[in-house]
Amino acid sequence: MSLFGVVLFVVGFGMGWIGLWIVIQSQGGVFALYHDDVPEPTRNRLQNLHKIMLYVERNQRVTHAEIERLAGVSSATASRYLEELEEEEMLEQVGERGPDVYYRRPREHF
């Protein structure tokens, strides 16, 4: 891989984590992921968002059903997580409806 390719990869990878960092910071900082003073629902949500993004980094994509299993949440909660990650431009939906729909990092992050 050329130096340019490595730089593009590092910048793209960093941009995804910057978005997650912004979400975490808006909820009380990285310590909110595991700190006892943070309300449990908020801490669980942030931990699950972190799990989802780590999964996407390893697998390049995630489905709604995978989020339900990965985070142990309902379909409605998985939908809220996906909506939040899309609003923060950390994930984009590929496909319109049905079982072929999946989510990945936006193209500008590659």
Short recap of the structure:
With 110 residues, the protein is mostly helical. The longest helix has 24 residues, at 3-26. Helix content is 59%, strand content 5%.
What do these coordinates show?
This protein is mostly helical. It has one domain: Arc Repressor Mutant, subunit A (Orthogonal Bundle). It is built from 4 helices and 2 strands, in the order H-H-H-H-E-E. The chain has helices at 3-26, 40-59, 64-71, 75-87, and strands spanning 92-94, 102-104. A two-stranded antiparallel sheet has the order 1-2. A hairpin with a 7-residue loop joins strand 1 and strand 2 (102-104). Helix 3 packs across helix 4 (75-87). The longest helix has 24 residues, at 3-26. It is globular and about 40 Å long. The relative contact order is 0.14. The model is unreliable at 4-8 (pLDDT under 50).
Task: Please name the defining characteristics of this protein.
globular; Arc Repressor Mutant, subunit A; 110 residues; mainly alpha; single chain; 4 helices
**Poorly predicted spans:** 4-8
The ordered string of helix (H) and strand (E) elements is HHHHEE
Write the CATH architecture name. Answer: Orthogonal Bundle
Average pLDDT works out at 78
The CATH C-level class name: Mainly Alpha
- Rg computed from alpha carbons, rounded to a whole number of angstroms: 15 Å
Q: Any idea what the CATH superfamily is called? A: Winged helix-like DNA-binding domain superfamily/Winged helix DNA-binding domain
Total separate domains: 1
* Major β-sheet annotation: 2 strands, antiparallel
Helix content: 55-70%
Which structural class is indicated by helix and strand composition? mainly alpha
